[in-house]
């Protein structure tokens, strides 16, 4: 739906992993970039390196910072063509032992923050009559793996929000899609809110994707405008052969 060349692409969580790789891939295809994360030094260095990019320090769980992020994008480039709602965090704990405060924080980051970003950018996209939003879910949603309850709950809720927003926005020129990565080699496991060693043990023997592979899948999804794409192998319930 969107030609990435010259498009203004806003990526949350652009300071590492899938977000950083998406920023690099979009820059390689000629996009202009808005790079958001809390670690401002990282996104500032990436913006310098890529050119035609602005870095914005943004904690996406802070609504005012989200509004300021979208304003900064419009101030810099006059429009926002693509948003990749990528910032997120994992948590590994049994349902019985999941701390309620951890769950609240996880939902704030993985569910409420992408909604806040969508709500902040939709007036801009509606006025343009075009725009694409890609929300990042996870292949963990395809299974009932012990320890993933809180994380899967946050991502499944995001998937449903995305699918329903897609229907609500039909005819406006704005497309909302879900990308479903498989286990990917990033800082994700080191940044889990809880349960790092158990989660790492659960992934023993799994061949991790590279973030660059996910970035290409995200840009392909932006180009196609499809509702959903996954990188999950058939053996794990996905469509990747
Ligand atoms: N790696 C996997 O196996 C995998 C698989 C499926 C889905 N995913 C999803 O992919 C997305 C990216 O994860 P990743 O694997 O690339 O992990 P990562 O390397 O840990 O990256 C997470 C990114 O989110 C940002 N972030 C975290 N909290 C934030 C906040 N409050 N405000 C703004 N930014 C925040 C981090 O930046 P700062 O710390 O600088 O703010 C970082 O750039 C996540 O949504 C994750 O759930 C990952």
TrEMBL record:
Name by which UniProt lists this protein: SDR family oxidoreductase
Stretch forming the signal peptide: none
Keyword Hydrolase attached: no
Family: Belongs to the short-chain dehydrogenases/reductases (SDR) family.
Keyword flag Oxidoreductase: yes
UniProt KW keywords: Oxidoreductase
Domain of life: Bacteria
PROSITE patterns associated with the record: ADH_SHORT
Ketoreductase domain: residues covered: 7-188
């Amino acid at each position: 739906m969107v030609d990435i060349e010259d498009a203004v692409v806003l990526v949350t969580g652009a300071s590492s992993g899938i977000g950083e790789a998406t920023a690099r891939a979009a820059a390689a295809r000629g996009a202009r970039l808005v790079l958001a994360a809390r670690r401002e030094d990282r996104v500032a260095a990436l913006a310098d390196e890529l050119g035609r990019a602005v870095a914005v320090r943004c904690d996406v769980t802070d609504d005012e910072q989200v509004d300021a992020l979208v304003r900064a994008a419009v101030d810099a480039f006059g429009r926002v063509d693509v948003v990749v709602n990528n910032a997120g965090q994992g948590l590994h704990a049994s349902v019985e032992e999941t701390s309620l405060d951890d769950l609240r924080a996880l939902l704030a980051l993985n569910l409420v923050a992408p909604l806040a970003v969508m709500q902040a950018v939709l007036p801009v996209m509606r006025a343009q009559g075009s725009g694409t939003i890609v929300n990042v879910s996870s292949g963990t949603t395809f299974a009932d793996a012990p320890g993933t309850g809180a994380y899967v709950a946050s991502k499944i809720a995001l998937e449903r929000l995305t699918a329903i927003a897609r229907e609500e926005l039909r005819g406006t020129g704005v497309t909302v899609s879900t990308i479903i990565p498989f286990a990917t080699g990033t800082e994700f496991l080191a940044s889990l809110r809880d349960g790092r060693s158990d989660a790492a043990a659960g992934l023993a023997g799994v061949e991790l994707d590279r973030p660059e592979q996910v970035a290409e899948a995200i840009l392909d999804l932006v180009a196609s405008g499809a509702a959903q794409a996954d990188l999950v192998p058939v053996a794990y319930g996905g469509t990747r052969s």
